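Quick one: structure tokens for this chain, please?
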Amino acid sequence: MPSSFTPREIVGELDRYIIGQTAAKRAVAIALRNRWRRQQVGADMRDEIYPKNIIMIGPTGVGKTEIARRLARLAQAPFVKVEASKFTEVGYVGRDVESMVRDLAENAIALVREEETEKVRARAAEAAEDRLVAILAGAAPKPAGQSFGFAAPPPPPRLSDSEREKLRAQLRAGTLDDQYVEIEISDSGGMTFLKNFSGQGMEEVGVNLQDLFKTMPGFGGKSRKRQAKVPEALKLLEQEEAAKLVDQDRVNREAMLRAEHHGIIFLDEIDKICSRDGAKGSGGPDVSREGVQRDLLPIVEGSTVNTKYGTVKTDHVLFIAAGAFHVSKPSDLIPELQGRFPIRVELEPLTGDDLVRILKEPKNSLLKQYTALLATEGIRLNFTEEAINELARLAQVVNDRSQNIGARRLHTVLERLLDEVSFGATELTNKDVTIDPAYVRERLGELVKDEDLSKYIL
């Protein structure tokens, strides 16, 4: 795992995707490095070192969620993003706060299973190819004139080794790609009705109903035949062979450890569950808000949550909370929960210069995304430097006039700007499209001037 990155290296990686917000990047970099440091200390001290949870304070669209998501990807750690406002106190209608830990366990299982599958991919591909060659070898047409009696059809002729190798060569060369074959794969379709039937209320059920029904006749352990083209059949067989080679018990054990010691839970909109203006005890929605905080407290403090893969202790899960705190403030959280988030980081609102950098610099910048998308239609899109500056300026103007949604405003502005090009891309005779300041003002200028209209469109 690359969790041994130094804080400076972590910040450098985050800089490739997120503009500015140095203080927040430093805070999460230290938190991630401390996880590596904790693994190096003695076992007697290791369990006593708890993560320093973080509250990121700042308006929407400045990079709070992206920082947490990129950090988890960098650390190859299980990651869950939840909105605190989706939870309600026990007794109210809503999700149970423990569901986020179960989601973390699911993500950990998926992460570890993918890693283990990658290790056996070569062996699985070889076994799948052998199975498909055997199927293709037995796919000779039945002899003409076959009766409808009870006699079994004659077995397909056995191919020699040289004929099998010839078939394998054709398979690898792609000459059989248009041919259909009948394959037999394990059937999990019997569980579909359970997935459709079980809503949010089912997540509190301790017994895994799907595993229970698999042991019942007619629900699990069956296989079914399916017609598929050769490439799809090969992929399905490879997935089945990989599942056979992966030790699921080992995956479960490793995933639970990964969730406990490396998991990251991002609690967004935590300001929405604050009791405002000292309204504690006054009844109404503030009762529910404070109730959610008290339900969250044991999870953040450290508790044991039952999942269908085993128990997960949350003592060493890193919690990163975020909120705009326009109406409320962090001190409106209950004192016990405040104490569990010792690190407070304030993110700065984005300036016009920041918006220019966001358009150009990140590895996955918006301009690079739109250029790549339209390149699939043969359109060569080119933005001049002045056009980028004008785009950022107009986005900033709209943010200042209406709701400030930060960098997300660039999505709406760019969609409006490139609407005509995107719609008529296949019909354009001139495939070279240059976006200059005049084009930007032509498409967006009047809209930005009309303040009432821009509120609804941009």
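The chain has three domains: 2-113+257-346, 124-138+157-251, 352-457.
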